Sequence to fold (470 residues):
Amino acid sequence: MDSARVSLTGDNDLLRQPPLDWLPSWAYNREIAELARDLNAHAGLEDNFSIHWRDKLVYSEIARPAVIWGFWSTAVNWTFFFVFAAYAWHSTQCSTEHGFLALYPSWLPCIGVPVIMLAMAIEWRCLRRNIIVQVQWTGRFTILGVPVSYIQWIVLMSVWSLQAHFDIVSQNLFTAMLVRTWGCSMVRSSSAAAASGIWKATIRESVVAQVPGFDSLATLALVTWSLIPLQLVWALSGVVPLSKASYAQTIKPRQNHQIYRTLLNRRTFHKDAIGVLAVVNRMVSVSFQAMYQTIARAKWWVERPGMNDIPQYAVMRYLDQLHPLARTAAMRLLFFSILENAMKLELQVSILALDRALMPRDHTKTDPKTLIPVVLSFLTAGLTILCAGFQWRKIRQAQVSVQKLIVLDSESHTPWSRTSRCLVGFGMVLAVYSLLVTHCVAKLVMAYVCKDSMWNIALRSSGCVDLSSL
Fold:
């Protein structure tokens, strides 16, 4: 075995040869290490598929157990989502002393800790199975183009993943708190009733005055919450087989590529399934490298050694790797960033403004318990926009790199057009999300500029609401 191939000898048992000698032995699954070694031993054989992929694994060869674990994670996370929502609403009580918002017991968020730890354990199991495929194609880890060590990368991914998993808890607590607050306004809480009146006055002067339900924050909170299960519907539509799996041709020692039809796709591989399951179950460490790995794998079709003339089928296979990437990124931004995070941010800023509107005129200090979550949500939104913009740029660069190789009347023109449409959709979703975040920024600033703190887009005024008549 030459020096360019993977070696399984030595203290680390895997990847002692550059550039993969930096991967710790506890970071990968030893079964996949053996598969990488055996595949490397077969590299160069004149066979249909071994000559194609040479010494690199692909997800479809090793991802089946990860897909199964992904389904278990789906069952755990989403069962908890619905059960915890009901319990959070039941445990939240009207407040008579601490502002207008209803309160939940301080111990209530702790209920989510065992579930989050279980979800993180499943994510770690999936990552250890996939990590060798990722680094074989992408090399060292980078974050927004900046190289980082594996330890730095896994620490950042773990923190990000914890935050993403805790969204399940925080979203349910936030919804329960708002729904209970508006129920309190009709019972005995004068501050909740005052907040309800202020909000209705604000909506009456806004451009959405005629839209049913906007005059109730509880209704908006429930609508926002009800949109979150669309993530599950999207995921299951793309991963649950509707037909018996067929098998693409492979050689030993590699496993078969299972191909099956789903509601959204005629041809779904295990790599597609684990990608979607990782997104819907907030497995950040599993999904983060998907773009880099897919683009690196796609480039092989048009950059592999020994090709003087690049055939159109190679260009078509290259582009066939890109459009699902752009489509998944757009759907992720739509379901998670717009329908969940942006809507929640709108409500959070509105609550902060209401809290200030209810304060005495000589009291201008904002409650940190209200301000800190808003600031953290803005930081998350900014990071999301930055990452999504970076993703769009990388996919577009990968597409443009083969533009001169396209023959317009060939089959490769169809995946080119499909990729372009997915990128346009991705860009439009990103633009909408950016506008929503910009609106939230404006509403936050105006909460400190307007005399009565309440502001919204209005057609006949500056947007500041006069509450002197209330």
Observations:
- Residues 312-357 form the longest helix (46 residues).
- The chain has a mean pLDDT of 80.
- Residues 291-470 form one domain.
- DSSP finds 15 helices and five strands in the chain.
